[in-house]
Amino acid sequence: MALHVELVAVEREVWSGEATMVSARTTEGEIGILPGHTPLLGQLAEGYEVRISQEGGHDIAVTVSGGFLSVTDEGVTILAESASLPGEADSA
What we know:
Blueprint: E1 3-9, E2 12-19, E3 21-26, E4 29-33, E5 40-43, E6 49-53, E7 59-72, E8 75-84
Parallel strand pairs: 1-8
Antiparallel strand pairs: 1-2, 3-4, 3-6, 5-7, 6-7, 7-8
């Protein structure tokens, strides 16, 4: 079973796809989201990475600046003020 993940910054869609787990730091602390997670809405902490784990052990680390994380039955949506993938210039 996989999670559908959409990571969107103000200026662009950063990443979209299937994942086995999503980890992020919210203003309430670190959170790990697996398939079947209870729906929630959290405010992202400034300047931390969102880690998206995929099948086969491939992880994507995206540095985000502010925003929100939403978990629903359909998947995980991350709305960031700005975000950058490894190797990209800082989008902030």
